[in-house]
């Protein structure tokens, strides 16, 4: 392209390029680029001019060339598909008439901070430095699938999609991208799906205070995401499903102060993940199902009131559960499992309490497990379970046995003290003792010689039968409960 073909505005850009000098068309620093469609020719640059400049622009000895432009209206398409750009591109506060096409291009750095674009096509883009879309407003899809960035990706406070027009495809597509450091997306606003499926981020992902609006759909699609350190989503507001299935996050997955809403569907799906710490502190009650099946956690911080009415937690493995609360406050969650009674979820909660040395809470969970299991049994088995529960709490409440024994012993002793049963052989019978006679009836393995020497009659005979039968049931239940308790230790 000849310089004679350029407008005055384009000539300014062309002449500044060899030295990397900035060209600022703005009338004021706080100018709003959304009004850029009305900017006149004095600040209009054609996309084809920028293409010619970046691919074969003039050079100057001893200077580092680069495109640094503020507040321009860029008409036509900036078409750099498969191009190799050797100079950084910085187009801040610009208004693009059409989506730039950087598919398959290679570039040292791309900065579009504060710009307004109808979209961006840059799949398989290679950036040797950083990508900055900070504070951009992009109404159409941003296609960055398969891109590789040596540095960071900045999309903080950017706005993607149009709240008045449903998005036909994800508004921000970072699926299968590779990021050398971090993704900064704090304060991002997306009207449509944000996709990070299969992305590999060497550092952290920051979604603090982001807003994702995809009601009835998936707001954040991040299956098999791999993060080097943490994924921060403090204060995230997500309308739609947050899907992290199969992700690897060795540090924190932090949803503190977030609001997750997907009524009638899964609000948070993080199944088959490996996560260091999952934080749901001060989160508003989740609207929709939470799916954490087969996920491995070192620490799970979640208050009971955060959980929704239905969860899927079979196979969830966590070592520490915080904040530390009595078992009675944690047990209602296990009743919300979508698949009904699952022994594993009780065993996992028991293990968590034993990890911190709370054996009393661990026994409470085990007792709740047996009671829940009892509801799945046939009637005769449920009856026997009720007996074990009432007698000794399935072996986890051994002091109940002492109470039952004492009550029966007092009853029998008082009854037989008021009415001595006659001796079978008066000349050979020992002196009658109502206490030891009752003990002989109650305890089948003890013989004080009283039971065989005396034979009650009438109603007292039926009382003796009751004490014998109750004693056998109680002894059997105690033995079964103690055996179960010891085996679980």
Question: Could you characterize what this model shows?
Answer:
The chain has 489 residues and is of the alpha/beta class. The longest helix is centred in the last third of the chain and has 30 residues, at 459-488. The termini are far apart. The mean pLDDT is 90.
Based on CA atoms alone, the radius of gyration comes out at 37 Å
| Sheet of most strands | 13 strands, parallel
Strand content: 15-25%
Mean pLDDT across the residues is 90
Shape estimate: rod-shaped
Q: How are the strands of the largest sheet arranged?
A: 1-3-5-8-12-16-20-24-27-29-31-33-35
The residue ranges in which pLDDT falls below 50 over 5 or more consecutive positions are none
The beta-strand count equals: 35
Q: What separation lies between the terminal Cα atoms?
A: 83 Å
- The helicity comes to 25-40%
Number of helices: 9
Q: What would you call the structural class?
A: alpha/beta
Summed up, what is this model?
By secondary structure, this protein is of the alpha/beta class. The protein contains nine helices and 35 strands.
Question: Could you list some keywords that capture this structure?
Answer:
9 helices; 489 residues; alpha/beta; 35 strands; rod-shaped; 13-stranded parallel sheet
Fold blueprint:
Layout: H1 8-16, E1 22-24, E2 44-46, H2 47-56, E3 67-70, E4 73-75, E5 89-92, E6 95-96, E7 106-107, E8 110-111, E9 116-117, E10 120-121, E11 126-127, E12 131-132, E13 137-138, E14 142-143, E15 148-149, E16 153-154, E17 159-160, E18 172-173, E19 178-179, E20 183-184, E21 189-191, E22 194-195, E23 200-201, E24 205-206, E25 211-221, E26 226-227, E27 231-232, E28 237-243, E29 248-254, E30 259-269, E31 274-279, E32 287-291, E33 296-301, E34 311-312, E35 317-322, H3 327-334, H4 343-355, H5 359-374, H6 379-392, H7 399-418, H8 434-442, H9 459-488
Parallel strand pairs: 1-3, 2-4, 3-5, 4-6, 5-8, 7-11, 8-12, 9-13, 10-14, 11-15, 12-16, 13-17, 14-18, 15-19, 16-20, 17-21, 18-22, 19-23, 20-24, 21-25, 22-25, 23-26, 24-27, 25-28, 27-29, 28-30, 29-31, 30-32, 31-33, 32-34, 33-35
Helix pairs in contact: 3-4, 4-5, 6-9, 7-8, 7-9
């Amino acid at each position: 392209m000849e310089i004679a073909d350029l407008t005055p505005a384009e000539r300014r850009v062309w002449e500044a390029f060899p030295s990397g000098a900035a060209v600022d068309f703005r009338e004021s620093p706080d100018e709003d680029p959304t009004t850029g469609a009305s900017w006149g020719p004095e600040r209009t640059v054609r996309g084809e001019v920028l293409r010619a400049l970046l691919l074969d622009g003039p050079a100057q000895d001893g200077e580092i060339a680069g495109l640094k432009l503020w507040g321009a209206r860029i008409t036509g398409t900036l078409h750099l598909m498969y191009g190799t750009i050797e100079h950084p591109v910085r187009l801040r506060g610009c208004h693009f008439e059409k989506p730039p096409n950087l598919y398959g291009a290679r570039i040292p750095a791309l900065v579009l901070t504060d710009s307004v674009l109808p979209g961006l096509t840059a799949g398989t883009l290679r950036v040797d430095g950083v990508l900055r879309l900070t504070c951009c407003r992009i109404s159409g899809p941003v296609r960055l699938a398969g891109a590789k960035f040596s540095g960071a990706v900045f999309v903080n406070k950017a706005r993607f999609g149009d709240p008045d027009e449903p998005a036909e495809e994800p508004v921000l597509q970072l699926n299968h991208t590779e990021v050398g450091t971090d993704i900064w997306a704090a304060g991002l606003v997306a009207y449509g799906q944000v996709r990070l499926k299969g992305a590999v981020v060497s550092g952290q992902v920051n979604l603090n205070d982001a807003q994702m609006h995809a009601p009835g759909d998936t707001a954040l699609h991040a299956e098999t995401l791999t993060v080097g350190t943490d994924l921060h989503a403090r204060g995230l507001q997500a309308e739609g499903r947050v899907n992290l299935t199969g992700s690897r996050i060795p540090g924190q997955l932090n949803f503190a102060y977030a609001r997750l809403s997907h009524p009638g569907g899964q609000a948070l799906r993080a199944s088959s993940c490996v996560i260091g710490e999952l934080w749901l502190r001060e989160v508003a009650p989740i609207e929709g199902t939470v799916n954490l099946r087969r996920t491995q956690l070192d620490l799970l911080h979640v208050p009971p009131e955060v959980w929704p009415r239905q969860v899927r937690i079979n196979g969830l493995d966590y070592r520490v559960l915080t904040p530390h609360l009595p078992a009675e406050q944690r047990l209602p969650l296990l009743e919300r499992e979508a698949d009904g009674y699952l022994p594993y979820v009780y065993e996992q909660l028991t293990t968590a309490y034993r990890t911190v040395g709370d054996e009393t809470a661990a026994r409470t969970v085990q007792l709740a497990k047996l009671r829940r299991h009892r509801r799945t049994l046939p009637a005769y088995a449920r009856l026997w379970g009720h007996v074990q529960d009432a007698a000794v709490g399935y072996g986890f409440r051994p002091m109940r046995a002492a109470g039952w024994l004492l009550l029966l012993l007092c009853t029998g002793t008082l009854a037989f003290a008021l009415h001595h049963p006659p001796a079978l052989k008066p000349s050979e019978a020992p002196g009658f003792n109502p206490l030891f006679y009752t003990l002989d009836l109650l305890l089948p393995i003890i013989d004080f010689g009283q039971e065989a020497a005396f034979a009650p009659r009438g109603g007292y005979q039926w009382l003796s039968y009751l004490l014998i039968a109750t004693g056998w049931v109680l002894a059997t239940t105690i033995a079964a409960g103690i055996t179960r308790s010891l085996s679980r230790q």
